[in-house]
Amino acid sequence: MSRSLGVALVQHHSTSLPEFEHRLRAMVAAHPQMQLWVFPELHLDSPEGQVDIEQLARPLGDERFAQLATLAAELGIWLVPGTFYERADDGRVHNTALVFSPEGTVQASYRKIFPWRPTEKSAPGDSFAVFDLPGYGRVGLSICYDIWFPEHARHLAWSGADLILNLVQTNTSDREQEQVIVRGNAIMNQVWIASVNAAAPTGRGRSLVVDPDGVVRMSASAAGEEILTATIDFAQVKDVRRFGTAGVSRPWAQFRPDDRPIDLPLYSGQITPGQWAARAAELPA
Known about the structure:
Helix content is 26%, strand content 27%. It has helices spanning 17-30, 53-56, 63-75, 150-158, 175-189, 235-243, 273-282, and strands at residues 4-11, 36-38, 78-80, 83-87, 93-100, 106-111, 130-133, 137-143, 163-168, 192-197, 208-210, 216-219, 226-233, 262-264, 269-271. The protein has two domains: 4-248, Carbon-nitrogen hydrolase (Nitrilase/N-carbamoyl-D-aminoacid amidohydrolase); 254-285, no CATH class. The protein is of the alpha/beta class. The chain contains seven helices and 15 strands. The two termini are 14 Å apart. It is globular. The strands form four sheets. It has a six-stranded mixed β-sheet with strand order 7-8-9-10-11-12, covered by helices on one side.
């Protein structure tokens, strides 16, 4: 059975919910073979002018999210409509990604662990998020600055992610460096990474899809509006881990159970070779 999935990364500037619904219907009609639709960070929560996150934040039970669930069911697609300012039960505001299934249910939610400080005022999340695409594989969620921290992508891969969705709203001059970091994380963890940035003027664009070998399979030409359509072959993760990146390096097979533990002072922890080898063997790829 094929494990290839059609994925569309929509590099657009921020918009309103009514306009979003109208444009998504048109885009899905034009690209019916795409099963997973992914939008940039804060795509529906970036009004012009000064952003007041306290005013924008809504609980996950808000009617707006119910509308998006209904839209995903109507179109029969997997939908990641960017991220939102979420009002948590304790009153704090998080930058949160939601995933809607073709049945109109919330398949996953993830609160950004590494807000871009000091500019971003939202509270950090404290847990990683992966979800299953039945028949294909497992997907991990990452929001913008998360990708700068190698621990983030590594833990998503450790949790079985074959594909990492990195939702971005970068309007600063370091988007070029982010592209390098995306490729580096894909190579080090032997996973697919799809990084979708906002278009101008909200962001600087240059979205890209990188395969487990680190090859850029698709990229946006510039900062303007663009839809990147790509075929993600989830089985390639298993092949690259088996034969090695470029047919050479196999980091997931690095340790043997009888190797000595390696202290990690930064985390007050260890790499335990026996645990590493056992867990790597269980990865669903």
